[in-house]
Specification:
Blueprint (H helix, E strand, L loop, with lengths): L4 H5 L9 H9 L2 E7 L14 H6 L1 H4 L28 H21 L4 E4 L1 H4 L2 H24 L12 E2 H10 L5 H10 L7 E2 L1 H10 L8 E3 L6 E3 L6 H24 L2 E4 L7 H15 L6 E6 L5 H15 L3 E6 L4 H11 L9 H20 L4 E6 L3 H14 L8 E6 L4 H9 L4 E7 L2 H14 L3 H22 L6
Helix pairs in contact: 5-11, 7-10, 7-12, 11-12, 13-15, 15-16
Amino acid sequence: MKMTFYGQFVAGEDQEAIKPLLRRNQAFGVGAVLDYSVEEDLGDGRSRTSAADKETGGAEKREKQYRVHLGFGDHRGGITGAHSYFYADEAKCDQHMETFLRCIDASRGCSEDGFCAIKLTALARPQFLVSFSEVLVKWRRFFHQMAAEEGQAGRAVLDTKLQVEKLQEALANLGIASKAEIQQWFTGENVGTSGTVDLLDWNRLLDSRTKLSKPLLIPNRKTGQPEPLLSRFGEEEEQQLKRVLQRMDVLARSAMEQGVRLMVDAEQSYFQPAISRLAVETQRRFNRSQPVIYNTHQCYLREAYNNVTGDMELSHREGWHFSTKLVRGAYMEQERERAAQMGYEDPINPTHEKTNEMYHRCLDYVLEKIKQRWKASVMVATHNEDTVKFTLHRMKELGIHPSDKKVCFGQLLGMCDQITFPLGQAGFPVYKYVPFGPVKEVLPYLSRRAQENRGIMQRANRERDLLWKEVKRRLLSGNPFSP
């Protein structure tokens, strides 16, 4: 196994075993994003339902996208979807944090100016992430519903603005809260001082209105009657929110002290609103002077551009560094199958071409802001040669120099070396995403890679053709052992 699939895509079993490969890569100007890729399968099959769901029957009342579907979190029984930690308890989350701390230590000792990748489904119980995601999406949808009633349907997120006076009146008429309470929401946090409220202001109300577990009413989508936004987000979930933020705080402090950056991996769409919010909360604290925490934006999502522009604008208003890894996305087949089975709208762009367009649109937006000297950094994580060429062309047009270290590139270990190493030797910051771990325990990761990246073989054929071309060139030159 070590001489075949494992040897191609995994660096080694532990932090000592991976050092030779990392040193070799560094000699060619290639850094590392370390990922301890051990994954645990499900336990004894017993679900841990939250107390709020037990009290209200909430599991059945949830919107379809935010219900737990165990068929998409299990490697057993022929299911090949990406693994999720649906049964992780708090003690297990603490163990995962310790694993990530060791990964940070390994990154400091093995790779200069490197990254450590972390997964939020390892640091928080995924049932909590699903619940939190549902709350965030409902709150955002309520804003767009009110905007549509004012004739603003279809506008870009940052162009959608509600008049404060009309908004306060509408909220009072809906029975959301008393007029006095609503006025306090806005005056207490200086929201809407310009006379209008956009989505970023609206989200601040959810942050500052009260503890998340206290009642906040929004209209039911079907009946139009007010209902508690957070009826299934109780004290238990409130405590989980505090604990996951504490774990991220520990990791971020360790990374900052050791000169390592944290890469928060993106996951499935029903987790992602919560993951992104938690990443942003950590960026607010630790990205003040330099980019320590990197979020990840998936450009195969229909909402990708709104997500990128919203997070970028928020960071600019609050004065911290926006830093992200742009990816196309690794869960497309699973997301589409889940949406079809559970009966909600497919969150993925309809075609590969649309995803490419979205990626370039998001990337170009970030590059333009870097040109305007906003505090922003981006990792262009792609195996697409056209996207790399597009990035290099736009960097040249905008005057963004590689030495600025605002733009870097990333590819998976074992893939697209014909992109990675020329970039490194040309002086561009470039990184390999480097999984490591024991052979038997990394097998789920390898299985996932095979399922999620069906284009691997096409890219492998491309690399094989390039290697064969170079072999023939050297043989014909009479000097087969020198470049």
